[in-house]
Amino acid sequence: MDWAADLERGFHPSLGWGLPPYTVDHGRVKVIVAGAGIGGLTAALSLHAAGIEVLVIDAAVTLGPLGVGINLMPHAVRELTELGLGEALAATGIPTAEHVHFDRHGNRIWGFASGLNIGYRWPQYSIHRGELQMILLDAVRARLGRQAVRAGTVFTEFAQSPSGVQVVVRDRRSGTVSAWPADVLVGADGLYSGVRAQLHPDEPAPCWSGIMMWRGVVEGTPFLTGRTVAVAGTNAALKFVAYPISRQAELRGRALVNWVAEVMVPGGSATAADWNRRGRVEDVLPWFAGWTFGGLDVASLITGAPQILEYPMVDRDPLPFWGTGRVTLLGDAAHPMYPVGANGGSQAVVDARVLAWSLARALSSSGTPAQGLAAYEAARLQTVNAIVLANRDMPADRLLHLVSMRAPDGFGRIEDVLSATELATFDQAYRSTTLPDVAALNSRPSLTP
Ligand SMILES: Cc1cc2nc3c(=O)[nH]c(=O)nc-3n(C[C@H](O)[C@H](O)[C@H](O)COP(=O)(O)OP(=O)(O)OC[C@H]3O[C@@H](n4cnc5c(N)ncnc54)[C@H](O)[C@@H]3O)c2cc1C
Closest ligand 1 atom, CA of 309? Predict the structure, then answer.
């Protein structure tokens, strides 16, 4: 890590725009990753495993375990397992057993098995996002060295030539602006990505669905299987999602329950999306008065959470391209999506792995970094853009809405509300928009270069 250590010691920051062209040494290609979130840190581990040098910068002065619950689907768990993190995930998250849907009165509509229970070789995990980020951060520091991640360092702009890229950063503590040379820049800087803004300067603000989400975590007694993702209502109006996220709580016979309350706000207007914004009990509780389902009392979950976070459900229109030359995007910077199919974090993980694989492959066959990035984009862009669009109009959500229209006061038997064909369609619709084919995932070759 001499290069990152040099940067850490302040060796390069004195260099400015007049820097001579950076010479690519294929044995020691250097990548700057902007953003130490789930995608950026996974990229660092994957690039390092491929023999590529990496420096990760993050705007946050301190990298702490922020956020609440997130789901990692089997396709992402496979990648993290191949990076050697399988045991850490198993010790931290809950291997999800099933997803069950209820109407807003608590009547069970439909359920399906998840992860290992439907034949994947890797589990789905429901996990605390901050704990996941810390697992990744600890692994990066242990494998690449502490200097490989620089907090408090804000990406501001880049300039590239055929032989290299200059990355301009601002140190938040000192205010110093520096230009750092690299072979590749990866923008993993989330929804308001500065790298994306430079690549697509005319892009409008994120698109708001009209739904506000409040989120919280509270410890309670296990419900249903103890490993169930339980969903009530529809996101055409009101929806409440709850799932346990802590293996440590489970070992104590308890459940650390993550909940998300979604409200289609009548006549609302979009607010800036900030994952850390505090919400207020009084804004969310009235919408869910009297709701119970799957053994859960929604009011207790809402009032029991030590803190509530508020976030508008936003995404961005799919991009025609993610990068040019030596610069690319991954994760939310490339394709922010509604968090309805448990795919935001999962797709960021897969992006990171495909990026490292594509770059390593190009370099090992005497190709250029730009060719590696082009191969990465070709492998991922269409697939992920389709997921962004599918998440805006989940067929499963349409069926949940149908149930609420046909049986607004509840029902005794779901068969009286939905036909067998409609139920089968429901099942299929969920799988095809959210999950990869089981046999295809289980049998495809590893992305470890
Ligand atoms: C603080 C936080 C809390 C979150 N909580 C949840 C949650 O509870 N549930 C959920 O489903 N999803 C949550 N998310 C979003 C979720 O992590 C992502 O949707 C998904 O994991 C994809 O990850 P990503 O790495 O692409 O982006 P992110 O995880 O958003 O990471 C982006 C990183 O880039 C950094 N960054 C931004 N701008 C710059 C810049 N100019 N220079 C350098 N670094 C920059 C940010 O500090 C952040 O660490 C949260 C994200 C953040 C940042």
Answer: 8
